[in-house]
């Protein structure tokens, strides 16, 4: 069994520490190694002890969470935790794994952890060298393995037992479910907008009513997905 991910909580609110600590304690693949209440305290902690995953608040006094990330040469995996959605677009520049809006539900927390585990290299060991976050993923198409860059992917569409992947160059069909595709893509860059559609946030040109416009396509937005989409676009 892989070593548990070493987690550091960084938030200036005691209540947030209580909730996240409780969540971490319920997940075997996580271990809490520290709790910090402001960015400078966290930076000093990271200089002393290796950490695999940060739960990082954005709005903090003196230095906010995004400013803190700019000071780190090799940051750990990061899940942003905040009550404010207005930083969502800016946060994508920092390659965060996920962006959780408070109050955070446990099911949503677990989904974020699954994304971290998928992105985490197998050798999560004390003193291991930092590994750059991947900028692409691999799919199987007609017996061949094809590497797709995240930046080239416009959207995915459920198609029976397959998924159609629409890129800037062409369309691929691969044997994945929409849920499996969602798990393999970074939540900081992609969002589910419908039970049958997942899109790149960077490629959305316009949201109008219950449709988003991506490239030349107008895609439906499901009612249960619309609120999160609006929050992420603000």
TrEMBL record:
What domain of life does the native source organism fall in? Bacteria
Residues covered by the Response regulatory domain? 6-117
- PROSITE patterns per the record? HTH_LYTTR (PS50930), RESPONSE_REGULATORY (PS50110)
Q: Keyword set for this entry?
A: Phosphoprotein
Protein's name in the database: Response regulator transcription factor
4-aspartylphosphate (modified residue): where?
57
**Which Gene Ontology molecular function entries are recorded, alphabetically?**
DNA binding; phosphorelay response regulator activity
Any transmembrane segments, and where? none
Q: Which InterPro entries match?
A: CheY-like_superfamily (IPR011006), LytR-like (IPR046947), LytTR_DNA-bd_dom (IPR007492), Sig_transdc_resp-reg_receiver (IPR001789)
Domain HTH LytTR-type intervals = 137-234
Q: Which organism is it from?
A: Spirosoma agri
